[in-house]
Amino acid sequence: RGDLMLITDHINLFGDNPLIDPNDEELGPRFPDMSEAYNQKLIELAKKVALKEKIRLQEGIYAGLTGPTLETPAEYRFLIKIGTDAVGMSTVPEVIVANHMGMKVLGISCITDLAIDGVIVKTSVEEILKVAADAEPIMTKLIKKVIEKID
């Protein structure tokens, strides 16, 4: 718990897409390319910064789900089978819209609760919020250092 994870790709399990409805061509194309939703150069830069700053950084695939419930053991087993490393209730819609608008995206997630081999490690919302708060200074440092290095 508390590790930071570079998001290298995502699986949209929201059952929805923020780009549904009429498209505004000024903002982006009707069907944006999502083959590199998370910018590889920014990922490499974040890895270099983390190494230099001695920040522990995982990498993985993020699955976006609607919530507001935490996942069941069966859901975790399914998510693992389809290649998911982390799960959350945000990020994916924002990344879709950012890509639609031609923005380069770096995704970093804080791992706040665990399922190991499909077995859930019991937690509470309060504990999840505490883990996130404890990781905030490290995440902030990483993001600031990455921004400083962007040319």
Strand numbers in spatial order across the main sheet: 3-2-1-4
Structural class: alpha/beta
Residue stretches low in confidence (pLDDT < 50, at least 5 long) are none
CATH fold-type name = Rossmann fold
The major sheet is characterized as: 4 strands, mixed
**How much of the sequence is in beta strands?**
15-25%
Count of individual domains: 1
- What percent of residues adopt helix (DSSP H or I)? 25-40%
Q: How would you spell out the order of helices and strands?
A: EHEHEHEEEH
The CATH class: Alpha Beta
Q: What's the name of the CATH homologous superfamily? A: Nucleoside phosphorylase domain
Mean pLDDT: 93
Distance between the termini: 32 Å
| Shape verdict | globular
Rounded radius of gyration (Å): 16 Å
Please count the helical segments.
Answer: 4
Level-2 CATH architecture: 3-Layer(aba) Sandwich
Number of strands: 6
Name a few traits of the molecule.
38% helix; 6 strands; two-stranded antiparallel sheet; 151 residues; Rossmann fold; alpha/beta
